[in-house]
Design brief:
4 domains; about 325 residues; globular; Phage tail protein beta-alpha-beta fold; 3-stranded mixed sheet; mainly beta; Phage tail proteins - horseshoe like beta roll fold; 14-stranded mixed sheet; Elongation Factor Tu (Ef-tu), domain 3
Length: about 325
């Protein structure tokens, strides 16, 4: 059973009358968790039921908070004299969309996250330790979220460890995806349908070229990693990037080739039976015959959309893993 609890700016909490179809969305990166819902003005609540932008919202499922955030948008029209209010609320990640400038040295991504959270008064939950020490970095006029994701990208390319930052019911949380594996199977019985595509048109690279301007020699060092077999099959699909001081060019090129040297396949599961444990960053078991490929493995949830009705709960999942990108 799903319920919405709103706490307005006066500190008054109430359960509003809500239309079916409450939608909770999480993305693995780039966006805060989002809750969309429609409130029907309940005359019985009177002034108690008044709320505005900034009011806190709890989504409770079977009595447990699965989303905690704040109303950012309210929209009305002439329906029922303006008594139907369509609302959008975001979790704490929304405040990481603020822009700032940071210059830091010799910090891991988890330490940088804690520093940003302290500066902006954000609530922290479990922050797992990352291992790559960033020698130095300047982030100028960028969103806090982009800065954090840049630090996590450096962890991924240098240590081959993927971490996910998310808001867990009001607390910023950082976890290695290896610790987000769920005992949940998506198969033809639990997922009503799927949408599957394959391509080499985007995010596929069979040659990696990285450059480093060596101040000691005055020359540009070049690091290349390539897969000749896939070059013969697909032609040259090159990724080019630059290195910062302290990065291992050969190791980074190999890591990027391992990450991108494959077809990009996309898999979306639609109207699967809902499970509130599933959010972007979770790992779920998938067993599906897609025609040209059979999937029997754990896959990473890139995006999760949960829709709650009065007596039903379904979810749509964008999955990633192996040759599949979200």
């Amino acid at each position: 059973m799903a319920q919405l609890l709103i706490t307005n700016e006066k500190g008054v909490s109430f359960f509003p009358l809500v239309e079916e179809g409450v939608e909770w969305t999480t993305d693995r990166r780039g966006s805060p968790g989002t809750l969309k819902f429609t409130v029907l003005k309940d005359k019985a609540l009177g002034n108690i039921g008044e709320f505005g932008e900034g009011s806190a919202v709890n989504l409770l499922v079977n009595g447990k908070t699965v989303f905690y955030g704040f109303v950012f948008t309210k929209q009305r029209d002439k329906t029922n004299g303006g008594g139907v209010i369509r609302c959008t609320a975001y979790d704490q990640i929304r405040y990481l969309k603020n822009k700032d400038t940071y210059v830091y040295e010799n910090k891991t991504a988890d330490v940088f996250i804690k520093m940003v959270a302290a500066d902006y008064g954000l609530n922290l939950g479990e922050i797992e330790s990352t291992s790559y020490v960033i020698p130095s970095r300047t982030e100028e006029n960028a969103t806090l979220l982009d800065m954090i994701e840049n630090a996590l990208d450096l962890e991924l390319t240098n240590q081959k460890e993927m971490f996910v930052l998310y808001d867990d019911a009001g607390k910023l949380t950082l976890k290695n995806i290896s610790n987000m594996r769920l005992n949940l199977l998506i198969d033809p019985q639990t997922g009503e349908n799927y949408d599957y595509t394959s391509s080499i048109d985007e995010q596929t690279y069979n040659q990696i070229k990285l450059a480093y301007d060596n101040q000691n020699t005055g020359k540009r060092d070049i690091f290349i990693a390539k897969d000749s077999a896939h070059i013969n099959e697909w032609g040259v699909l090159q990724y080019f990037g630059t290195l910062k001081e302290g990065e291992n060019g050969a190791a980074k090129a190999d890591a990027l080739l391992s990450l991108y040297n494959s077809k990009t396949r996309r898999l979306k599961i639609t109207r699967a039976f809902g499970d509130v444990r599933v959010r972007a960053g979770s790992m779920v078991a998938v067993s599906l015959d897609l025609g040209d490929i059979v999937v029997n493995s754990y896959m990473l949830v890139e995006k999760a959309v949960h829709v709650f009705g009065e007596h039903e709960h379904f979810m749509t999942l964008n999955l990633r893993g192996g040759e599949f990108v979200g």
